[in-house]
Each structure stands twice: as C-alpha cells, then as structure tokens.
Amino acid sequence: MSGNFVQDNTTPNQENVEFNALLEKSQQSMLESKLQVARVGGYTKKSVEDFIAEMRQSVVQVKAQLERQILDLAAEKASATQECTVLRAQLKTAVDTLAARKTEKRQDGTEPSAAEQELIQARAENERLKSKLLEQQANAGDQKMYEELLKQKESELAQLSQTLAGYKDECGTLREKIDEMVSASFAADEEISALRQQKDNVETKYQKMLLQMEKANLELAEKKQDISDAEIRLEQKKQQLDELQSQLDQAKLYLEETRAQLELKDQQLAEIQARLESELQAREYWHMVTNELDEGRRTPEDWQEGISGEKLIESLYMQFSQLRDTVDYQKSIISEKESLLAQFKDLENETAALRQENENAKSVIASLKSSFEEVMEEMDEQSETLNRYISRSRKDRELLKTALNSRHKPLPDNPEQAAQQGSLPEDLEAADEDPPSEENAMPPISQILRFDNARKIIPLSDNDKGPAAEKPDEGKYNPLTKAADI
C-alpha cells in the first residue's frame, strides 16, 4: 500500500535549477518593461512612482494569496484530523467485529467435533454390531438383517466424514478472511500514518516558504528604496552636468569673440605704429627746419608750415598714447581670460568626474535590477513548490479513498459491519468536498505582477542629457557675467 504514494526526492539544488529555467523562459523582460524613459534621458518620475505603486499592490496581493492558502491548509488540516479520528473509530469497530466473528467461527468449529464424537459412537456401534453378528452367526435368519444394518451404518459414517471435511474447509476459509481483514486494517493504519507525516512535512515546508517570502518582501522594499535614491542622485548629477556644459559653451563662445577683438586691435595697433614712425620722421624733419630758421635761412611761410606740422605730431602722439593704453587694457583682459580658461578647465575636470559618477550610478541600478530579478525568481519558485505540494497531497487523498473503497467490503452475513464499512468512503468524500482547486492555487509572481510592455528600462549613455538645468542664482558668482562686464 505504501507504494501508492509519491515520494518527494527533489533536493533544494534541483528545485533551484527548475526555478532558474522557469525564470529564464517567463520573466526575460519583467523589469525592462516598467520604467518609462524620459525625453532628455533618465526615467520619468511618474513611471517610477507608478512602478513602486504597482509593486506595493502586487506585494499586498501576494500576502493576501498566502493568507488564503494558509486558511485553506488549516481547514484541510482540520478536515484530515477529523477524518483520521473517524477512520480510527471505524477501524476499531471493524477489529472488534472481526474478533467477534472469529469467536463465532471458533464456536461454529465445535460442530465438527460433535460430528467426530458421533462418528466415534457410530464406529463403536458398528463394532458392537459386529460382535453381535459374530455372536449370532449361528442364527442364519438374522444374519442378513445385520449385514444390511452394517451397510447402512457405514454409509452414514462416510456421509459424516464428508460433512466434517466441509466444516474444516469452511473454518480455514474463514481464518484466511480474518487474517486478510486484519492485515488490511494494519495497512490502512500505516497509510494514514504516512499521510499524516506527509501533511506535517508540507506544513513545515510551507512555514519555511512563508518566512522566505517575508524576507524577500523586506529585501524588495530595500531594493526599491535604493533604486529611488539612485534615480534622485542621477537626476541631480545630470542637472549639474547640463548646467556646467551650458556655462562652458557660453565661455568658449565669449572667448572666441574676445580673440577676434584682440586680433582686430592688434591690426589697428600695427597701423598706428606705422603712422607713428612716419610722424617721427616728420618730427625729425621739423627739428631740422627749426634749426635752419634759427640760422635765418628760412622764410616766414616755411615757419608757418612748421607750426602746423608740430600740431599734427602732437595729435598723433596723443593718439599713440591712447592706443598704448588700449593695448595695456587688452593685455589685462587677456590675462583675465586666461584665468577664466583655467577655471573652465577645472569645470571640465568636474564634468568628467560627474560623468564617472553617472556611470557608477548606472552600474548600481543594473545591480539593483539583477537583485530584484533574483528576488522575483525566488518568489515564483516558492509559489510553484507550494502548488506542487498541494497537488501531491490532493492526489494522496484520492489514493487513500480508492484504497479504502477497494479493501473495506462488507461481508454478506454481517449487515451491521457492512453499514459501518460502507460509511468510510462517504466520510472521506464529506471531508474532501471542498479541496483546494487549481483556481485557488497560488499563481506565479510573474502573473501577479502584470507589467506594461510599453515601458522599458534603457541604460544611460555618455551622450544622454538630463532635464533642463535650472537658472543659476543671480547673486552667485558667475565668471561669464564678470567677463561680459569687463
């Protein structure tokens, strides 16, 4: 009878292998279909909040499902306990009935003993008749009568011998039936003990699975919080990066304009320097003319022309002084621009550091995603294992009911025992009226968490841009504003 029950020989490693195979087939794009990518990079806040809300709702559903399964198992346990009590009572009644019937059969077995005594008496009577026949051999008239009486007694003796043999055969058959019924009752008791042990094992494994499920829920909440924090930090870093990139582009544009202005000033300065050299030559000529006038070798018209040339030289000298001041001012601007370039190089280094932090944040998100997938795989495996145990328990219950129907058949000469044994399958059916159906079995977590395929997780690349940076504070120091003022 014990061969009818399925033994659970699966190890935890085999269950993990089955779980991994199921996960690879059913949850390839489970998380990648949740978060919606923003237009400028990253993930939208609404998609993250929706994802967190759906995850919380799914956890609540899983918790409710587990509580419902616990209630079903508790009801099943109570039903099985009641069923075992009824079976024990019926088994005790059957054993008592079998013992009573065995006693009756033993009492019936005394009848062949009485027949043997009658046979012995018949034999003694036969011997007596034989002796009487010998005594009366002399009487020829009575000899024939005694011979016929002897034949009649011998016929009765043979008939009694056949009756005794029939009684012995019937007694042996009854003993065999009693032994079979006793062995069947012992086998049924062993089957009930095996079912009780399997039920206890299922309850123990179920409690372990509940503890693992609670631990997985806690880990899931921690992972979701880590993902939310990483998303916030990533958005802040991207905003800082966009702000620095905008400032760097403006500074580069302003430096290009400044370089063009400096080149124009250098060209103007070269032209003024050429004019100044020509004016210096004219001034030397003026000194020479002045010397000649002092010597009285020039006319008053030449003197008037020399005065106008001196005024021109003075005006050119003033322009040269202004241009020299302009050149000095431009040199100071160039030095300030060089300091700005150094500052912007530092900003570029900070930008590179921010990009590195962005890559680190992406790796953290990928790690969190992998951990979340592992947690979901474990939850699916646990629900699948629980359904398998429930199905096996239901199958064992059906096997027990079939075995009891086939073995506990009523004897035709004992109506009371037949009625008691006939109630065994009915009690089993009453205890199994509401078994856990396939619809009440726990579905996989991948079916509870219905993700939207329109959403997808896309890792951030180096060229991704975050949301538009906010305007910098006007009261804060800005090198671009200072350069423009200069």
Outline the structure in words.
With 486 residues, the chain is mainly α. The protein has one domain (38-441). The chain has helices at residues 12-26, 45-108, 110-135, 140-294, 300-407, 415-431, 445-448, 479-485. α1 (12-26) packs across α5, α3 packs antiparallel against α4 (140-294) and α4 (140-294) runs antiparallel to α5. The longest helix is centred in the middle third of the chain and has 155 residues, at 140-294. The protein starts with 11 loop residues before the first helix and ends with a helix.
**Radius of gyration over alpha carbons?**
57 Å
Q: Tell me roughly what share of residues is in helical segments.
A: over 70%
- Number of continuous helical runs: 8
Point out poorly predicted stretches: 1-12, 410-415, 417-425, 430-486
Return the average pLDDT rounded to an integer.
Answer: 66
Order of helices and strands: HHHHHHHH
Q: How widely separated are the two ends?
A: 102 Å
Structural class: mainly alpha
Count of β-strands: 0
Shape: rod-shaped
Number of structural units classed as domains: 1
β-strand amount: under 5%
Q: Mind summarizing the main beta sheet?
A: none
Task: Fill in the keyword field for this structure.
single chain; 486 residues; mainly alpha; 8 helices; 81% helix; 0% strand; rod-shaped; disordered N terminus; disordered C terminus
